Structures are given as structure tokens and as C-alpha cells.
Amino acid sequence: KIMKNFTLIFSLILIASSSFAQNYKVQKKESKLSWTGKAAFNSYTLTGSLNILKGHLKISNDTIDELEIVVDMNSLDHEIKDLKKHLRSKDFFEVKKYKTATFKLLKPSQIKNRKVLISGFLKIKNKQKQEKINAQLTVEGSLITIQFESNFDRTEYGIRFNSPSFFKKLKENAIADEFNLKGSILFKNNY
To answer: How far is the CA of 49 from the CAs of 22, 37, 52, 120, in angstroms?
Structure first.
């Protein structure tokens, strides 16, 4: 009887803990990240892609407790080869030296109606800044997709090439300080 009670209590603890905390691992191949940069004084835009290196997510009830995404900066891509080379150079992201960019959750973020405001530290070129990102969650069985679109100021991460904020006389060659990052990141429950 004591053994039966112990087994019952142990089972209840397992069920309770599994309903409170779920760990998910990023699915690199199914996840998508795209960036868009634009000219400062006209409507010219360029869009390319990035790949995720690794990441994890921990959710308990309706709260994201942990979230970390590591982006492979060597994957920075664009169909124009010269532009891709330039973006990977010292003028921009200097990917030979700074091989990754990371986003790490700062504090637990509550999910309401599949929406969440994620507050965390974004680190690019070894410069770290707190950012807030509005995201949407979709749950399908053991899979969670986080979708977002947000703007970031590249100059705050030391990327000042042709910035109108730092080079006042630039006109047609000026590149907007803000770039757009759009993502659909898939996580799978690792039981």
C-alpha cells in the first residue's frame, strides 16, 4: 500500500512538473530569419537571410521563462555577391571576428492570447543592448513557432557605415540606421 501511494504521488509530481515547465529546442532547418536594410533618403530596400545556429525555449504555464537564440553571422546572405561580401566586412558585421549574434531573455514574459512582449539582450559585434520584441506564438502538438518582426538601430551596435546620423553630408549613398529583422522560429519539445 505504501508503495502504491508512493507511485501515485510520484506520478502526480511528474504530471504537475511537466505541465509547469516545458523545454524546447530550436529546429534550425525549419526556422527562417530575414533582414531588410534601406536607403536613408529614398525607398530603395534590400532583403537577405540569416541562419540560426542554436537556441532553446522554456515555458511554464503561460510564461516564457527562458529563451536564447544564437545566429550564425557567417550565414549572412544576399543574392548580390559584392553586397554580401561588404556586409560581412569590417564596414558592417565583421563576421570573421564576430561569428555569432545572440538574443537572450532578460526576464519572464507572459503570453496572452498567443501574443508576448519579449524583453532581452541583443548582442551584435560584442555590443549588447536591451531590446523589446513583440511576438506571436503558435502551438501545434510538441511544436511552438515564434513569429516576430522588429526594427533595430545598427549604430547602437557599432555599425556606422554611411549612417546619416554620423555622416551628415551623405545623400544618395546614406543607409538608414534602422534595419528590419523578421523571423519564424520553430521549437520542438525535447521530452
So the answer is: 29, 11, 10, 22
pLDDT at 33: 97
Ranges assigned E (strand) in the chain:
22-26, 32-38, 45-60, 63-77, 100-105, 109-112, 115-124, 127-140, 143-153, 178-189
Burial track 61-87 (b if 16+ CB lie within 10 A, e otherwise): eeebbebbbbbbbeebbbeeeeeeeeb
CB 188 within 8 A of CB 145: no
Q: Would the pLDDT of 92 be above 60?
A: yes
Distance from C-alpha of 56 to C-alpha of 24, rounded to nearest angstrom: 6
CA distance 104 to 66: 8
- Phi, psi dihedrals of residue 85, rounded to the nearest 5°: -60, -45
- Name the residue among 56, 62, 69 with its Cα closest to residue 21: 62
Closest CA relative to residue 138, chosen from 90, 172, 178, 185: 185
Residues 35/50, Cβ–Cβ less than 8 Å: yes
Polymer length in residues for the chain = 191
pLDDT confidence of residue 171: 58
Residues β-bridged to residue 26: 187
Amino acid identity for residue 108 in this structure: P
CA distances from 36 to 136, 161, 164 (A): 20, 16, 17
Per the CB < 8 A criterion, the answer to whether 146 and 111 are in contact is no
Q: How confident is the model at residue 120 (pLDDT cuts 50, 70, 90)?
A: very high
